[in-house]
Design goal:
CATH superfamily of the largest domain: Ribonuclease H-like superfamily/Ribonuclease H
Structural class: alpha/beta
Number of strands: 5
CATH topology of the largest domain: Nucleotidyltransferase, domain 5
Largest sheet: 5 strands, mixed
Radius of gyration: 26 Å
Strand order of the largest sheet: 3-2-1-4-5
Strand content: 5-15%
CATH architecture of the largest domain: 2-Layer Sandwich
């Protein structure tokens, strides 16, 4: 593993002297550490070999970016790795994604192991995929596992690219690759504590205030310790404690459902959050404004016209996805179809539907494939008689 500036410089020179695409993979410590930083970066280029870099030790990856920045970077599931690479100022100018390609080709299994086996008839072992890659020193068998993740990736890329060409999906794939490469990070939620698993069980603004304080206390501690919050106290334990409504610190300590490796060692921290939540004046709203659409099952009663549009367009889009041999969600993001069904263009045509889909973020190839189908389905839904209202009971 390369963990010095000198080692990085030597590797960068070897990679720069070689030619062709570069296979790249990133190992993180998800579920173990608070951050999503890279703890290992694997790079392979034909003519140069495999290099394993230790990001915390190396620090500045400028020489690597200069060496391979203009090459095509080949990933398997690039959307997972690019954010961690961007933190290190490692930014590709073009990418190829074998996992996304496999989806567009309609392959039933798109994990790296399955794709390697299908294209190269090589079986990869995946026993370290969920390991704590922040471990130092990394065991030798982990390093070998990590190297294999990129050693075959360029051969896979060539096989997948050939099938994309054969099926006429190469340009579609390139649009998808570019969307992933240039995708902006999602803005942080205004109230991240509302992502607490099981929060729907908590009733009342005062109890929600306790939930907010507990989540915040855990998050601050997790960030300081660089530990995944759920490893300190799981979400289900926080919710169980809120629902139990302990009247004292000793009652909280005695609560069996309040588990986690820091549930007792940091009991003062958690009890203070309880006290603060019960005393704070600013109470959170039980329901917050959102642009989320109503559940589809409620559409018939709330917006019958939207319900008819969706019921007409959805099976038509699904049938076309089956014809193209790809998952429906890759042909068109389901939320895009729901939103345009809920709020369609004023005048229905292929052009207006195309514009609406484009505004939602659909790619040009998706628009070309689905806009005519959606426009026709919406027109047919408008012409169909409304379902008779059910008699009052």
């Amino acid at each position: 593993m390369i963990d010095t500036a000198q080692g990085l410089a030597e590797a960068a020179r070897a990679l720069a002297d070689a030619a062709g695409p570069v296979a790249v993979d990133v190992e993180r410590a998800s579920g173990f550490r608070y951050s999503a930083r890279a703890y290992l970066i694997q790079v392979f280029r034909r003519g140069a070999g495999v290099f394993l870099f230790d990001p915390p030790a190396v620090g500045d990856f400028g020489p690597l970016q200069e060496a391979i920045g203009d090459a095509e970077w080949v990933f398997h599931a690039a959307s997972q790795d690019l954010p961690s690479l961007h933190e290190l100022d490692l930014v590709p100018t073009s990418i190829f994604d074998t996992e996304l390609s496999a989806r567009l080709l309609g392959w039933p299994k798109v994990g790296l192991g399955a794709v390697v086996e299908r294209t190269l008839d090589i079986v990869l072992r995946k026993e370290h995929s969920a390991a704590d890659w922040s471990t130092r020193p990394l065991p030798q068998d982990w390093l070998e596992y990590a190297a294999l993740d990129v050693e075959h990736l360029l051969d896979v890329r060539d096989a997948v690219a050939a099938e994309l060409d054969e099926t006429g999906k190469r340009e579609w794939a390139e649009e998808e690759f570019e969307e992933v490469r240039t995708r902006l990070p999602k803005p942080a939620p205004a109230e991240p504590w509302r992502r607490l698993g099981g929060l729907h069980k908590v009733r009342g603004r005062r109890n929600l205030a306790v939930a907010r304080q507990l989540w915040t206390a855990r998050d601050e501690f997790a960030r300081a310790e660089d530990v995944s919050p759920g490893r300190l106290v799981p979400d289900r334990a926080l919710i169980a404690a809120i629902l139990a409504q302990p009247r004292s610190k000793s009652e909280l300590t005695g609560l069996k459902a309040f588990t986690g490796r820091a549930s007792r060692s940091e009991i003062d921290r958690w009890w203070k959050a309880f006290v603060d939540g019960r005393e704070i004046e600013e109470l959170p709203l039980e329901r917050v404004p959102t642009d989320a659409l109503p559940p589809v099952r409620a559409w018939a009663g709330r917006r019958a016209d939207a319900d008819r549009r969706l019921k007409a367009a959805k099976p038509a889009v699904e049938a076309h996805a089956e014809f193209l041999s790809m998952p429906t969600e890759n042909l068109l993001t389901p939320d895009h179809l729901r939103r345009i069904a809920w709020q369609p263009p004023t005048s229905l045509s292929i052009e207006t539907v195309s514009t609406a889909l484009r505004d939602l973020g659909a790619r040009e190839w998706q628009i070309a494939q689905t806009a005519p189908i959606i426009a026709l389905a919406f027109v047919q839904a408008a012409q169909s008689p409304a379902a008779p209202a059910e008699p009052a009971s």
